[in-house]
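A further point concerns the way the authors explain their paired sequence and structure data. Since the whole study asks how a given chain folds, the encoding of that fold should be made plain. A single example would do more here than another paragraph of explanation. An entry of this sort, consisting of the sequence and the corresponding backbone structure tokens, reads as follows:

_____
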Amino acid sequence: MTRYIKSTMMVVAGLCWFGIAWAFGFFLFQYLAGGAGLQVFGFFGVSSTTVLIGLAHVIGFAAAAFLCCVIGTGFCAHGLVPAPRPEQKAAKRPKQRFAFLRQLIAARRSTEDADVVLRCVRCRVPLAAPVHTCPECGWTQPSAI
């Protein structure tokens, strides 16, 4: 029962934010229709100051209306989308920090353990003893000093 009440309240809150956005839009329209900036310094006529102040007010009203619309959309979306049921949630594993590094180190160690025997640097053929050239490909081997 409380889930339905919470969902209803979220939708109502979203609709209220949409109403506030509409009110900002209405004030913006009235401000533009009334001269947009001439109300502040109307006795000077149209100047760069009145245009700048009018532009700042228009941008502020538009930003406020947009922000209220985004908040209203978020509230309505959270109210209308049902919450996941507890049995649908996946069991959480404990977080392993830097797990990819541990796997990389473990993989490198396993290849190092397998490479205990000497191998040719070119053809990877196992060598019985440290030699200067590979008997298979003739490649010069690094010294093992």
Observations:
- Residues 2-82 form one domain.
- The longest helix spans residues 48-80.
- The chain has a mean pLDDT of 78.
